[in-house]
Amino acid sequence: MIPRRIVLSLVAGLASTLLLGACGSSNDAGTDNAASVTPAASDPAITTPVASPPSASAGAGSGDGTTTTAVTAKAMNGLGNVVTDNNGMTLYRFDEDEPSPSKWTCKGACIKTWIPVIAEDSVQTSGVEKSLLGTVHRNGRPQLTLAGWPLYRYVGDTAAGEANGQGKDGEWYAITPSGQKSATTG
Q1: How far is 61 from 131, CA to CA, in rounded Å?
Q2: Can you give the pLDDT at residue 119?
Q3: Could you give the CA distance from residue 145 to residue 155 in angstroms, rounded to a whole number?
Q4: pLDDT at 28 over 80
Q5: pLDDT, tens only, 93-120
Q6: Which contacts qualify for 164-172: CB closer than 8 Å, 24 or more apart?
Q7: How many angstroms separate the CA atoms of 97 and 169, rounded?
């Protein structure tokens, strides 16, 4: 009878230890410690490759317009081939950002107009070389990069296939599948 009590006590103790360990290692996603994750002007940002899943279906994102799970090369009138997200929205690059190492500079009021493309999951590609995709850390979240350039959506694009942000302020351009800025061709 005593060995049975010992085994039950050990199991209960082990279970308690595991539960306490899990509680202690949780990460509060609501806390934004920008000081420790935002790249400083002189610090290189950390870039990581983005894997493509073997499945052919694309995810829908979170619905808040900030996540993407697919990038596609699409021919647009006057722009040639540009990159769009899984909803067909044009993706842009910002001339003030730096591609090597990837570093974002759009912040504050800028990100209310130019929404960073966050890629929480693996990203599928169509017409875009997978090896050119990566991420840069933006306040603890992975912002998608193409050829090192952080990617954004423009709030002025309200429907798939629009490119109203093209050439904005002489610094924002639809991005091509190779990471170049699209030049107006028509």
Answers
A1: 22
A2: 93
A3: 19
A4: no
A5: 999 999 988 999 999 999 999 999 999 8
A6: 165/90, 165/92, 165/114, 166/79, 166/90, 166/92, 170/95, 171/94, 171/95, 171/96, 172/92, 172/93, 172/94, 172/95, 172/114
A7: 14
Q: Which pTM was predicted?
A: 0.66
Longest dimension (CA), the chain: 88
Residues 6+ apart with CB under 8 A from 89: 153, 157, 160, 162
CA atoms lying within 13 Å on the CB side of residue 143: 33
Burial of 18 per CB tally in 10 Å (0-12, 13-18, 19+): exposed
* Residue 135 burial by Cβ neighbours in a 10 Å radius (0-12, 13-18, 19+): buried
**Which residue ranges make up each domain of the chain?**
47-174
